[in-house]
Design brief:
Layout lengths: L1 H31 L7 E3 L10 H23 L3 H5 L6 H22 L2 E22 L16 H15 L4 E7 L3 E8 L2 H7 L15 H10 L7 E8 L8 H10 L2 E8 L5 E2 L13 E2 L2 E2 L1 E2 L3 H11 L2 E5 L7 H9 L4 E12 L2 H15 L1 H5 L5
Parallel strand pairs: 2-3, 2-5, 5-6, 6-11
Antiparallel strand pairs: 1-2, 2-12, 3-4, 7-10, 8-9
Helix pairs in contact: 1-2, 1-4, 2-4, 4-11, 7-8
């Protein structure tokens, strides 16, 4: 009995010693091996927290060994037949534990995804450059959206914000226009920057008032000079074009294969144009002594969209439905296939995964390995 007890004690000591050596080596590697200099890192270090299960596994193994040692001691005097089901083999017990915990250790390490260095990967993606032309003529200050609570310009800004939320990967630019036009935001993929710029747009940014959609299209075309991407323009306006110069731009846009779309804002009933959108007490715009009523020019917008074969969406909601336009840009044939080259980390997760598999195989075939002649 003393021999069996000593064997059990040696088994426990072997367990503690092996775990001590194992984790000491892990800590030394972490503390002293210059992993950063070697370009080695883990993509998901948080997965290493799962190693906390290993001490639990060790505790359960110790409890099991302790129980089996006691049973073995109790039945050791009952002959060989009664001892078959409680046979206590310390070497096999320890190897079973070691292989099982090693399998788990390497699985967790594989889940952490060790990477080292990088490799070049060739790929392609369909790209589109979208220029948003926003009308900031005084008529856009008219509050006839949502029953007269919201101005057309405010609804336009909300529509642009929603469009940015739905786009994925397209470069965007913003051109503001009245009788003249200029680029407010050049082509960029920084949607966050666009969301910062757009809310600050006001009709006071352009003193030369009027609605010249042709000039807006001309400035928008300048954004496409040095791009090989697909091209698209979205015009957001109430449609009261006073210049009618847009026809001259349509031929050039067709040559450049630019896709046009229109978002018309305003109600059929219309509303008054305030002299100061922030101070209603300053009154409304007048002509010949009469207050000017601004309405959405659906007829003009329909004509422009028809001549350019463009999609047209009109709305008098403070939150215009931009879904159709956004879907159109996502699925447009104007998107160009662009070849790109990028670097990706070399992932070596398969090395610990293979080690885990080898440990698992050894675990299942351990009885044959230890006693190859036993049937």
């Amino acid at each position: 009995m003393i021999e069996e007890t000593n064997t059990y004690n040696r088994l426990v000591k072997l367990l503690l010693l092996s775990e001590g050596i194992w984790w000491t080596l892990v800590l030394i590697a972490y503390a002293f091996v210059p992993l950063d200099r070697l370009g080695i890192k883990l993509l998901h270090t948080e997965m290493l927290g799962l190693w906390i299960v290993i001490p639990v596994l060790a505790l359960l193994s110790w409890i099991h060994w302790n129980w089996k040692a006691k049973i073995y001691k109790e039945y050791s005097g009952y002959g060989h037949t009664r001892m078959l089901w409680v046979k206590f083999e310390p070497a096999k017990a320890f190897l079973h534990y070691f292989l099982l915990r090693s399998t788990y250790f390497f699985i967790v390490l594989a889940m952490a995804q060790p990477v080292a260095g990088s490799r070049k990967v060739n790929g392609s993606k369909r790209v589109l450059d979208l220029v948003i032309c926003l009308d900031i003529s005084n008529s856009m200050n008219t509050k006839d959206m949502g029953g007269g609570e919201v101005s057309r310009l405010t609804a336009a800004k909300q529509a642009i914000g929603e469009l940015l939320n739905q786009l994925k990967g397209e470069r965007i630019a913003v051109v503001v226009f009245a009788n003249d036009a200029y680029t407010q935001l050049p082509l960029t993929m920084d949607y966050g920057a666009a969301k910062l710029f757009v809310p600050d747009i006001e009709t006071s940014m352009i003193s030369d008032q009027g609605t010249n959609i042709g000039r807006a299209l001309e400035v928008a075309r300048e954004q496409f000079k040095d791009t090989e991407s697909g091209k698209a323009i979205l015009v957001i306006t109430d449609g009261e074009d006073h210049e009618a110069l847009w026809r001259k731009q349509l031929e050039e846009l067709k040559k450049q294969q630019v896709e046009l779309a229109y978002l018309g804002l305003g109600s059929g009933k219309g509303g008054l144009i305030p002299n100061n959108p922030y101070d209603p007490s300053e009154g409304y715009k007048r002509e010949n002594g009469q207050a000017v009523v601004s309405k959405i020019d659906k007829k003009g917008l329909t004509k422009m969209a028809s001549e350019s074969g463009s999609i047209l969406v009109t709305s008098d909601s403070p939150f215009p439905n931009i879904y159709d336009i956004a879907t159109n840009y996502k699925n447009t044939k104007n998107k160009q296939l662009m070849k790109i080259e990028f670097k990706v980390d070399k992932n070596y997760f398969y090395i610990p995964a293979i080690l885990a598999l080898l440990c698992m195989i050894c675990y299942f075939f351990l009885p044959i390995i230890i006693n190859p002649n036993k049937s």
